[in-house]
């Protein structure tokens, strides 16, 4: 295992992902959080930071103590802090260095093994190391800075390295190779962190944690809950009780199809048809937040009622993933902001259940790989994200059963079309929005006065920012035709070309 000490850089998660991609397990912790030098710990990486090492409140750690025990690699701020802590000098540069630079090797070292001289590296710093401490050696420079990479070579401590650039970002073309050199050749990591090894270890751990108790879990049809449930099911079989609620605002045929997939995977899941309850409580609700609240509250009611029918339940399973739980260091000071995340808000407190979260340390792409390893069908693994309140926030204004039926038809044509044309996986999320607007059309000799749907498709990495997907005109034309010709009640189709920000992905 590798520990990444976070000083608040926006790239810290990318370091973790790059380490995981090298099949080495790692965890991010805030720099000020104590840790132990347990036997499996092989090395430490110090992240970048929005701070300058010369600021009075600059965060610091005891690098000399670390390096007595383990190899250490400082990245950007981490490198500057290392240089400063050992008596070197870091100054504000006249020229800030951002973006592309070329690394010129000055010395051979295992860290830069197989790295091309002149390799492109990505910089993002305004301070520079101007003098290295005694006993440190320059490994590489760039056109504008004297110290792009350094090492401290002594026999009495473990190896200590610093990189002024960011090896973890995509634009450092050989950055991942440099990280791999550090992990494998310097720290001695075995690269055995694979989906298969994760499955084996996790199933064994779950067996231990759960014993002969029962686990209940709400399933949504989404990737995270499905993969988490499958892992738990591998450990305890039918003592996992999954509950999948039809809230009336799922996609067309989704309830039946998802239940069928669960059965094929071998999950013990109960499907609860609560459509009418949701429709009756959604009646007259037009405000988006009010609709969300109704759906959230009813969901908990239904789930709780079903859960009470199962005896011996001690645990609540959840599909929480790593980005939801990383404690990141706030940019505004060394205090920490902890993001907490409950897929089923409010439940654990009232039901006195312990949490089982087998995906707590995985990134999304790793969850997908584990899912495939578990034999979950690829079309389940590659599903777009779908909001908890479902089509209710894609029907602007009041939600009725009739409007849901209308939107479901249009939505199905659109999503199936994306799949048929090979566009589904190139889009991060797609959906159809029913606008509360009727307009005039003409069909044959008849005048129509019907609803409009908007098609939405975005590209994104995490849903925080998004661009509208530049879908081919021919495809949009086909979908528009198909919807208007087949869905009675819709006579106009428009395409949403707003990015986020300033718009959002959903319309409500
Ligand atoms: P926005 O519309 O905020 O959406 O750009 C970003 C992502 O979040 C999803 N979303 C939700 N998911 N409950 C959810 O579980 C919600 O109330 C909710 N609102 C938006 C949205 O689908 C997109 O993936």
Automatic annotation (TrEMBL):
<keyword id="KW-0658">Purine biosynthesis</keyword>
<dbReference type="GO" id="GO:0005829">
    <property type="term" value="C:cytosol"/>
</dbReference>
<feature type="active site" description="Nucleophile">
    <location>
        <position position="76"/>
    </location>
</feature>
<protein>
    <recommendedName>
        <fullName>GMP synthase [glutamine-hydrolyzing]</fullName>
        <ecNumber>6.3.5.2</ecNumber>
    </recommendedName>
</protein>
<dbReference type="Pfam" id="PF00958">
    <property type="entry name" value="GMP_synt_C"/>
</dbReference>
<dbReference type="InterPro" id="IPR017926">
    <property type="entry name" value="GATASE"/>
</dbReference>
<comment type="subunit">
    <text>Homodimer.</text>
</comment>
<keyword id="KW-0436">Ligase</keyword>
<dbReference type="GO" id="GO:0005524">
    <property type="term" value="F:ATP binding"/>
</dbReference>
<feature type="binding site">
    <location>
        <begin position="220"/>
        <end position="226"/>
    </location>
    <ligand>
        <name>ATP</name>
    </ligand>
</feature>
<keyword id="KW-0315">Glutamine amidotransferase</keyword>
<dbReference type="InterPro" id="IPR022955">
    <property type="entry name" value="GMP_synthase"/>
</dbReference>
<dbReference type="InterPro" id="IPR029062">
    <property type="entry name" value="Class_I_gatase-like"/>
</dbReference>
<dbReference type="Pfam" id="PF00117">
    <property type="entry name" value="GATase"/>
</dbReference>
<feature type="active site">
    <location>
        <position position="168"/>
    </location>
</feature>
<feature type="domain" description="GMPS ATP-PPase">
    <location>
        <begin position="193"/>
        <end position="383"/>
    </location>
</feature>
<dbReference type="InterPro" id="IPR001674">
    <property type="entry name" value="GMP_synth_C"/>
</dbReference>
<dbReference type="InterPro" id="IPR004739">
    <property type="entry name" value="GMP_synth_GATase"/>
</dbReference>
<comment type="function">
    <text>Catalyzes the synthesis of GMP from XMP.</text>
</comment>
<keyword id="KW-0547">Nucleotide-binding</keyword>
<keyword id="KW-0332">GMP biosynthesis</keyword>
<dbReference type="InterPro" id="IPR025777">
    <property type="entry name" value="GMPS_ATP_PPase_dom"/>
</dbReference>
<dbReference type="Pfam" id="PF02540">
    <property type="entry name" value="NAD_synthase"/>
</dbReference>
<feature type="active site">
    <location>
        <position position="166"/>
    </location>
</feature>
<dbReference type="InterPro" id="IPR022310">
    <property type="entry name" value="NAD/GMP_synthase"/>
</dbReference>
<dbReference type="GO" id="GO:0003921">
    <property type="term" value="F:GMP synthase activity"/>
</dbReference>
<dbReference type="InterPro" id="IPR014729">
    <property type="entry name" value="Rossmann-like_a/b/a_fold"/>
</dbReference>
<keyword id="KW-0067">ATP-binding</keyword>
<comment type="pathway">
    <text>Purine metabolism; GMP biosynthesis; GMP from XMP (L-Gln route): step 1/1.</text>
</comment>
